[in-house]
Write the structure tokens for this entry.
Amino acid sequence: MANLALVSAMTAATETSSDAESSTGFFGWLFGSDGFHAPTVDEFFPPALLFEGTIFEFNRIELARVIAAVVLMLLVWLVVRNAKLVPGRGQGAFEFLLDFVRFQIVEQVMSPENAKRFLPFLTTVFLAILAFNITGVIPFINMAGTSLIGLPIVMAVWIYVLYLGVGVKQHGLGGYLKLSLFPAGVPKGIYVLLTPIEFLQVFILRPATLALRLCANMMAGHLLLVLCFAATQYFFFEAAGFMKSMGAVTFAAGFAFTLFEIFVAALQAYVFVMLSSVYINMAIEEEH
Amino acid sequence: MTALSLVVAAEEHGESSANPLIPAPYDILWSLIIFTIIVVVFMKVLLPKMQAILDERAEKIEGGLKKAEEAQSEAAAALEEYTAQLTEARAEAARIREDARSEATAIVSDSRTTASDDAQRIVETAHKQIEAERQQAIVSLRAEVGTLATELASRIVGESLADDARQQRIIDSFLDDLEASVNDKQKAEG
């Protein structure tokens, strides 16, 4: 569903961005007004706030990330600082999240010993992605930290290095390559086909899909929300007569998509950590 | 910020990096910094602290369970002991009661024996006394009756029966006859 939304939003975005100057694109045609500006990919390249043009360029998406990170660490610190044997409300909620990652994700995939080894990192990744995703629906931030590809790439590469590292450590370089590229139990001739596919899979597709899936979902969500609220704004304040009532429809859609984005924020965190667990587990297991 | 300036800014920016799938260097840099900080803070500080609490709780619960188990086994042992003691006490009470009963029986029979012995002894003593008195009476009677009879006979006959040996013989035979007649009379009555 999220992917469907992505496709439609991307189509809309590319169509409008290609005709942005003339404002006679898809939405221009639909609403027939100069007052409406559909969101474009440029949403994700906001003007710099600091250090423009340098590698330290700091814009509002970076700010959203910093806020998300600080708030996340602060909240967890508040919980941990007052952690008691008998948990209160906040600690109960936090422990629910920890238990969710442990029992619903990591221990579903790995053996308990391996789960214990990787659980702290995977829990951190889960909470971080959740925090970065949820900023997409927080008022005044309204931009998911993960909707700019850099952060998903950093996290995916981290996971990539991690699973390659533990794989090589477990089986040795040759052993890991053999395990990954030449899976056991296949007739020799098939390796001609299978090995390139496995190579692509292990060394390129896994990290790439991890990063792209997360980023694309959050981008699509942001574009959908902006679209709904921009349209609502336009209908209520610029459109005339009957068209004003259309604003109620787009506002309801915006409301629904906000709820949906909260769900997607959690879902994408779940998917990312679940797949990371699977990849790590594949690297350390004897056979797969 | 007006829509126009937004568009201008977007154009200025968008031309250079319009593809959202190619990361800008600053994007990677900031992401790496922020994510590294989060990972370090969580893995070095926050999660270990939380883990310590969770471990402590697990330990406490396990300890509590163990303690409860111990208490239960202790209680079971105590109950067993009490039951044993109770049984013993009951047995002892029964024994004491039995002892008391038999003792009482013994006392009663003892006193009964003593009483009957006493009674018998008293009766015997009485019998002996009576016999002794009777003998004494017989002896004194014999002597006196002899003297009286002799004196009577002397007065009647008018002569003194001087020969004591003869006198004594007569008296004895008289008394023997008398005694025999009394005995016969008694036998006839009895």
Notes: Chain A is about 75% helix and 0% strand. The two ends of chain A are 30 Å apart (CA to CA).
